[in-house]
């Protein structure tokens, strides 16, 4: 039977989560207080240190010089760079609060530091140096540590990369999105191939061994022709990894997305065609599709992790290993101890004021129930391996009885196979992975959102 994808896109293009967490943020309800959060981190730190794997730190730098209109991140737009040093001092103070309140006898063992944003390279070299050395002086680092950062090619300098390399950073993720000038102009992010190439080459020369390009499909005015040209440029520069994200149109949450109209956006059919073309071109160039919307060269650890079933997915997307706890520092950062999620204040001044008062500045989160923990594992399995099974008591929960019934239609459409408490996503089902995960989302199924929250799944 020939699959009619156009019909399937119509049928399955519904609002749905991207599952960077389970439960998804709108369903967080059981907020931890500071002591719950600290206890949970201590427990996860003990487990991580016993296994000699260490913890991860995510540090959010919210500043950007200008607003890209598609952006879904927590940002503060400013050209005033004097905000950098007070912010760095607050983050270091927040980290000191953790060190005091965790009351550990030894320095915590850390295996990952990730600088995200916003634009981490908004900070000057001296500020980045103060921030990272301020952290490194207080922790032990595992031998196989990985430090990574997100960078904007328009504002990142060779000197910043030199410093970050000296501090141990070896992974770099560049925000590219699209090389077409009309698309760039519409989303208010004009950047040239030369800017991207300069940073890519400098990073390679310095020994950064994993360079990622972030691309987006589904942006206003993108066409098959514009995507083709963008991917041709990407093929030429051969980043180790590519995140080829689906644009999430949520103007009711991000009003800057109202600067273009829905008529400027490709339809669901057209959007998927953009992805299919990009995927084919990347595969022809030797990239392997990993997880949902990600591609890796055979030499990169993301592919190895996928082959060894070690791939993980968190708030930043796919990573090559599972690390817990993840402690989030900075405004709006999310921490994850596996059993608890906790998010910092999203408003910059409130975040700073709470740290000044000596409080761990979390304002919401979720303590996972035993059902949440089991369903979290299944959704993660689907997102990273395209399969899951629930034939042992430890991975079973009552809700799973309803899942095969909910997926009957998807099974008939050839998107998946379900046999004896195990599910496998078929190749034609990969485009509908978010929809398949939704069947495992007990919270979403018990209570549909009352307002528009999620972007469309296609
Ligand atoms: S540079 Fe990145 S974080 Fe800043 S506005 Fe643009 S997309 Fe958002």
Provide structural commentary.
The protein is α/β, with parallel strands linked by helices and 458 residues long. The protein is built from 16 helices and 19 strands. The protein has helices at residues 5-12, 34-50, 84-102, 125-136, 158-166, 181-186, 193-206, 224-237, 268-284, 301-307, 348-356, 370-385, 403-406, 408-412, 433-438, 442-446, and strands at residues 55-61, 63-64, 76-77, 109-117, 140-151, 169-177, 210-217, 241-246, 288-290, 294-296, 312-314, 317-319, 326-329, 334-336, 340-344, 362-367, 387-389, 416-419, 422-425. The strands form five sheets. A nine-stranded mixed beta sheet has the order 9-10-8-7-6-5-4-1-13, with helices on both faces. It has a three-stranded antiparallel beta sheet with strand order 14-15-16, covered by helices on one side. Strands 17-19-18 form a three-stranded antiparallel beta sheet. Helix 5 runs parallel beside helix 7 and helix 8 (224-237) packs parallel to helix 9 (268-284). The radius of gyration is 22 Å and the shape is globular. The model has no long low-confidence stretch (mean pLDDT 94). The site of iron/sulfur cluster has 11 residues, from loops.
């Amino acid at each position: 039977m020939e699959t009619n994808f156009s019909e399937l896109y119509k049928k399955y293009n519904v609002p749905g989560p991207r599952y960077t967490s389970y439960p998804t943020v709108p369903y967080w309800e059981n907020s931890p207080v500071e002591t719950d959060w600290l206890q949970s981190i201590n427990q996860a730190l003990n487990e991580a240190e016993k296994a000699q794997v260490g913890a991860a730190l995510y540090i959010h730098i919210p500043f950007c010089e200008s607003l890209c209109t598609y952006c879904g991140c927590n940002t503060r737009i400013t050209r005033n760079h004097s905000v950098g040093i007070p912010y760095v001092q607050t983050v270091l103070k927040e980290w000191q609060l953790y060190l005091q309140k965790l009351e550990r006898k030894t320095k915590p063992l850390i295996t990952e530091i990730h600088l995200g944003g916003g634009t981490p390279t908004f900070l000057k070299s001296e500020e980045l140096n103060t921030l990272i050395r301020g952290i490194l002086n207080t922790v032990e680092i595992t031998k196989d540590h990985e430090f990574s950062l997100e960078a904007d090619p328009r504002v990142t300098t060779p000197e910043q990369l030199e410093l970050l390399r000296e501090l141990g950073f070896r992974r770099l993720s560049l925000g590219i999105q699209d090389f077409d000038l009309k698309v760039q102009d519409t989303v208010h992010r004009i950047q040239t191939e030369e800017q991207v190439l300069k940073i890519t080459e400098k990073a390679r020369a310095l020994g950064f061994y994993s360079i990622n390009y972030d691309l987006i499909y589904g942006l206003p005015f993108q066409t098959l022709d514009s995507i083709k040209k963008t991917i041709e440029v990407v093929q030429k520069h051969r980043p180790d990894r590519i995140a080829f994200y689906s644009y999430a149109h949520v103007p009711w949450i991000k009003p800057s997305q109202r600067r273009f109209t829905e008529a400027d956006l490709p339809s669901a059919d057209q959007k998927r065609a953009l992805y299919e073309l990009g995927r084919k071109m990347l595969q022809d160039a030797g990239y392997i599709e990993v997880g949902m919307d990600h591609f890796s060269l055979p030499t990169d650890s993301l592919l190895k992790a996928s082959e060894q079933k070690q791939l993980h997915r968190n708030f930043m997307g796919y990573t090559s290993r599972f690390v817990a706890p993840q402690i989030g520092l900075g405004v709006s950062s999310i921490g994850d101890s596996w059993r608890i999620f906790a998010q910092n204040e999203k408003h910059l001044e409130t975040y700073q004021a709470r740290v000044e008062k000596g409080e761990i500045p979390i304002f919401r989160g979720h303590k996972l129930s035993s059902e949440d923990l089991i369903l979290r594992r299944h959704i993660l399995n689907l997102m990273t391996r395209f399969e899951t099974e629930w034939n042992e008591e430890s991975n079973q929960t009552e809700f799973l009885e309803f899942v095969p019934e909910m997926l009957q239609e998807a099974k008939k459409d050839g998107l998946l196979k379900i046999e004896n408490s195990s599910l496998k996503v078929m190749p034609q089902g990969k485009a509908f992975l978010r929809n398949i995960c939704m069947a495992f989302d007990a919270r979403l199924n018990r209570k549909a959102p009352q307002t528009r929250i999620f972007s469309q799944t296609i």
